[in-house]
Design brief:
The chain is α/β, with parallel strands linked by helices. The protein has a domain at about 1-180 and about 235-260 and about 300-310: 3-Layer(aba) Sandwich (Rossmann fold), CATH 3.40.50.720. It is built from eleven helices and 13 strands. Helix 7 (about 200-205) packs across helix 11 (about 315-330). It starts with a strand and ends in a 7-residue tail after the last helix. It binds nicotinamide-adenine-dinucleotide and uridine-5'-diphosphate. The site of nicotinamide-adenine-dinucleotide has 27 residues, from helix 1, helix 5 and strand 5.
Length: about 325
């Protein structure tokens, strides 16, 4: 297939492009590089041994997307493009709704105008809100607590409504848990700008000496060691999940599925695993809880297995080892 990958130069998009190329698809990356570098797309081609097509553009520009879909005879879209910092979304809600929600509407209009019926959307476990039970199953009630999360939920609703109006559409809503790690080649990985918000890139920067110590946000949760528990998933496993979702979309349908490992790890477990991977100790201090954080959550992965024939295979140790390999080989990320 010819696949338009919005946000394909970003963290999850770049790893997915590698898997798509490996599976024999043609890839067109559509990205405005607001949080990524063209160098990432060169490296995707280097890993896969096949070049891809790169279109610089913004998803809010319907004409530009239509042109990219037409000129490349695209059969499907994988839609990663979006802003993802929860705290920033609280400070700049209009920016988030414009980019993430209105951008998706423009993308769907362009798909409709060009007859492209298949879309895989990057949703998030954040759409489950405060757990009423764990693990989260796909039929857990949906709610959200930030403009970022509400945007994900709005786009899910928009896509469900779109499927009702266009019953021949083929839509996958992939609810990611906590993607971490990097490609095992060390050539692509997460390249956060400024101070990382997320745990793994922060730990990685402490290990390489860019930051003094990790602040652990809360040590008094009702979890086995008091620190927050999350379901970490290796980004290469997540990337394969997209190829599987695309293969499943041979028939018109709209489905939501969790992509996680199915098990939770605490912050302290991540720190210990990272220390093993890098052979250094990670200084940390336990501080207050971060506003809005949940104590613990993890995925029920039964549906992913039965529907897509997919499950995560890489361990927390591999996630840490691959993050470390990427960091050591690219201390400045893609800024070569
Ligand atoms: P990322 O920032 O690395 O990648 C997003 C890409 O989209 C970047 O290359 C950016 O330049 C591009 N982009 C943003 N707005 C654009 C626009 N208007 N037009 C064109 N390109 C645009 O983020 P990521 O971690 O790879 O996340 C990808 C998707 O997965 C996002 O939608 C994110 O919300 C979702 N998601 C991420 C996580 C996570 O922890 N990383 C978890 C759940 C869901
Ligand atoms: N966390 C932390 N220190 C940090 C960043 C994160 O203790 O500098 C904790 C956070 O409180 C949560 C876990 O690590 O329990 C994962 O946080 P992250 O921001 O990576 O993901 P999310 O909160 O979106 O699940």
């Amino acid at each position: 297939m010819n696949i338009l990958v919005t946000g394909g130069a970003g963290y999850i998009g770049s790893h997915t492009c590698v898997e798509l190329l490996k599976a024999g698809h043609q890839v067109v990356v559509f990205d405005n590089f607001c949080n990524s570098f063209p160098e990432a797309t060169r490296r995707i081609g280097q890993i896969a041994g096949t070049p891809l097509t790169l279109v610089e553009g913004d998803i809010r520009d319907r004409t530009a997307i239509e042109r990219a879909l037409r000129e490349n005879a695209c059969d499907a879209v994988i839609h990663f493009a979006g802003l993802k910092a929860v705290g920033e979304s609280v400070a700049k809600p209009l920016l988030y709704y414009d980019n993430n929600v209105i951008g998706t509407v423009r993308l769907l209009e362009a798909m409709q105008a060009t007859g492209v019926k298949t879309i895989v959307f990057s949703s998030s476990a954040t759409v489950y809100g405060v757990p009423q039970f764990l693990p989260y199953t796909e039929d857990h009630p949906l709610s959200s607590t930030s403009p970022y999360g509400r945007g994900k939920l709005m786009v899910e609703d928009i896509l469900r409504d779109y499927h009702v109006a266009q019953p021949d559409s083929r839509i996958a809503l992939l609810r990611y848990f906590n993607p971490v790690g990097a490609h095992h080649s060390g050539l692509i990985g997460e390249d956060p700008q400024g101070v990382p918000n997320n745990l793994m890139p922060f730990v990685t920067q402490v290990a390489i000496g860019k930051r003094d110590r990790l602040q652990i946000w809360g040590g008094d949760y009702d979890t086995p060691d008091g620190t927050g528990v999350r379901d970490y998933i290796h980004v290469e496993d997540l990337a394969v999940g997209h190829v599987k979702a695309l293969e499943h979309l041979r028939q018109p349908q709209c489905f939501a599925v969790n992509l996680g490992s199915g098990r939770g790890h605490s912050v302290l477990e991540v720190v210990k695993a990272f220390e093993q991977a890098c052979g250094k100790s990670i200084p940390y201090e336990i501080g207050p809880r971060r506003a809005g954080d949940l104590p613990a959550y993890y995925a029920d992965v039964t549906l992913a297995k039965s529907l897509l024939g997919w499950k995560a295979t890489r361990s927390l140790e591999t996630m840490c080892a691959d993050s470390w390999r990427w960091q050591v080989a690219n201390p400045n990320g893609f800024r070569v």
